[in-house]
Amino acid sequence: MGPVNVGLDIGATKTLGVVVDADGRVLAQERLATAPGAEGIVATAVGVVEALAAAAGAVTAVGVGVPGLVDVERGALAHAVNLGVDGEWLPLGDLLASRLGVPVSLENDVNAAALGAVALTGVDDLVYLSIGTGLAAGLVLDGRLRRGVSGAAGEIGHVPVDPAGAACQCGQRGCLETVASGRAITDAWPSGDVPAAQALFAAAAAGDVRAVAVRDRFAAGVADAVRVLGLSLDPGVVMLGGGVAQLGEPLRAAVSSALHDQAIASPFLASLDLAGRLRVVPVDHPVAAVGAALLGPREAVA
């Protein structure tokens, strides 16, 4: 194999790296446990890239998807608390480039995943809705990644929908994230060693009445997020991703059912067929790493 581009998805527990072709097909992948803090993040990323280079060929460029606040122009990262990076800007792009000797592009992980979802579907008007610990969206509109003036585009989880709802970590009350996120499921359905979302959906499928109620409330919250995105952006596809999306088809079906219920009294909403636009990321498809591998030196910003 000749020179290759590598994409990295750096998360709190693992760093996943992939080599992809021009169409986003994964040719090789490698993962390592992420060591915390600036030095740990850099060392882990370098280890993954070196392993991929040994397996697939000389690396010509690296794209990185990472949680937190990302300054794309500077290649800097801040407020990635789960990675051990606080509010001070970390020049992660420069640190990696100096160690690897190749250009490095940095992007928020949800935005990178949106680009990976575009490569997966071939649809260039798409919203990637990440349902992980929190809730956030990556927006690709007419083929252009939308970050927003302050990088806050797609922070759908912090749209308040219930003035009497639970306090959110962002300081507001009743945000969508307090209902429609992995953290919300864990709070509502503690499950020990089994992932809470899997335990909840299994119990609901088995007929547990309380589990059905918790699942349906969660699904209605995700449907609310889809509805806000659909009415504000009208995307061709809404792709459900993130850790909770490992549920696969049961998640899509539950959210689709909630969308249908919400549209019963509204011919206008029914005519939009938001449920018909739903997709779910195939289990274990590394959309964030793929999207990172496809990053240009300066991805188009709208």
From TrEMBL:
- SUPFAM superfamilies found in the cross-reference section: Actin-like ATPase domain
Report keywords, A-Z.
Kinase, Transferase
The superkingdom of the source organism is: Bacteria
Record-level Gene Ontology MF annotations: kinase activity
Q: Which Pfam families match?
A: ROK
Q: Where is the signal peptide?
A: none
Family label: Belongs to the ROK (NagC/XylR) family.
Question: What is this protein called in UniProt?
Answer: Sugar kinase of the NBD/HSP70 family, may contain an N-terminal HTH domain
Gene source species: Nocardioides lianchengensis
